[in-house]
Automatic annotation (TrEMBL):
Membrane topology: Multi-pass membrane protein
Protein name: HTTM-like domain-containing protein
Taxonomy, superkingdom: Bacteria
Provenance organism: Pedobacter petrophilus
Compartments where located: Endomembrane system
């Protein structure tokens, strides 16, 4: 008998999936940063904190390692304090992943992530901003009802509409981001004539391969630029048409995979792919996982029957 989930329960599972993959992403990103922790966040890092503060002096409240350290300077060295903040951040993310006191540790993870990115503003780009937004969504949305050791009891009358609105907020956010990203691209000529593609793959800080040969094929660059603009500006239309959603999601994932491969922005590509899968791709992932698990169970049962027949005790009758 097939179990039919109520809409609210399905949305709650989707939001719990969002929490888990965002927390895991943050942990993997933190592990990648760890070898260069002091260079990024330390008092004697690549960019002195006083220089960084000079560019954002108009911000009244900006918690960061440099501003918080004086309160503990009599007890800890600056390097040890940087490591302590980092370790606490990772601990909170682990607790968020397993679903312990989800609302509390979502808020603490978001706060410590904010402290870290505020400590290295000049090294931040899109991935930090989207990670900060996703962690904030974990704070305000009901993401702790499934895959959580502190599992909450579903109250249908209270949570029937909230999960639905929460998922729609995730979807609306992506629609706004992609649409206005595409709209901004068509205002100029750089994306329409392929120049932006050329610059993206040939800038020294982004260049992963020698792609100079592609300059001989301007039509290819132009088509790639038009492809990016089309994917982004048509995003709100096609992802909200059920028959087109899967195809457009695949195109978006291909777009971000190419950003990771040819520009080296792997974590930005990863957070965008995970965001898309959480907002629009969860039903496909859920269906695929169920089919995969059922297939595995079917194969296991098949071999179980074979082994049972092989090792079964023969029924020997005595005719004496």
């Amino acid at each position: 008998m097939e179990l039919k989930l109520k809409p609210s329960e399905s949305y709650l599972k989707q939001l719990s999936f969002f929490r888990v993959i965002i927390a895991l992403f943050c942990i993997f990103q933190a592990m990648a940063i760890y070898p260069n922790l002091l260079e990024l966040y330390g008092a004697n890092g690549m960019i002195n904190s006083e220089i960084g503060d000079a560019f954002i002096s108009n911000v009244l409240i900006r918690p960061n390692i440099q501003n918080l350290y004086p309160y503990l300077s009599p007890y800890l060295s600056a390097e040890l304090f940087s490591y302590l903040v980092f370790y606490i951040y990772v601990l909170f993310l682990l607790l968020l992943t397993v679903g312990y006191r989800v609302r509390l540790f979502s808020a603490l993870s978001w706060l410590f992530h904010l402290i870290l990115i505020n400590s290295a503003l000049h090294f931040n780009y899109g991935v930090e901003q989207f990670t900060k937004i996703c962690l904030f969504y974990c704070v305000i949305m009901p993401t702790g009802y499934f895959a959580a050791i502190s599992k909450k009891v579903i109250n249908e009358t209270k949570n029937d509409l909230i999960p639905f609105i929460s998922v729609k907020i995730l979807q609306f956010h992506l629609c706004i981001v992609y649409f206005f990203g595409g709209l901004g691209k068509i205002k100029g000529t750089h994306w329409l004539n392929g120049e932006a593609i050329w610059r993206s793959i040939e800038q020294p800080q982004f260049q992963q391969f020698d792609m100079s040969w592609i300059a001989a094929y301007p039509l290819v660059l132009k088509l790639l630029g038009l492809f990016v603009v089309f994917i982004e500006i048509s995003y709100p239309i096609f992802v909200n048409i059920k028959k087109m959603r899967g195809i457009h999601l695949i195109l978006v994932i291909i777009l971000h995979l190419n950003i990771a491969i040819f520009m080296g922005l792997r974590y930005f590509a990863a957070i965008m792919i995970l965001f898309n899968l959480s907002a629009y791709g969860y039903s496909y992932l859920s269906a695929f996982s169920h089919q995969f698990i059922n297939r595995i169970l079917s194969v296991m049962n098949k071999y179980k029957r074979i082994l049972k027949n092989v090792f079964a005790t023969p029924n020997i009758q005595n005719y004496d």
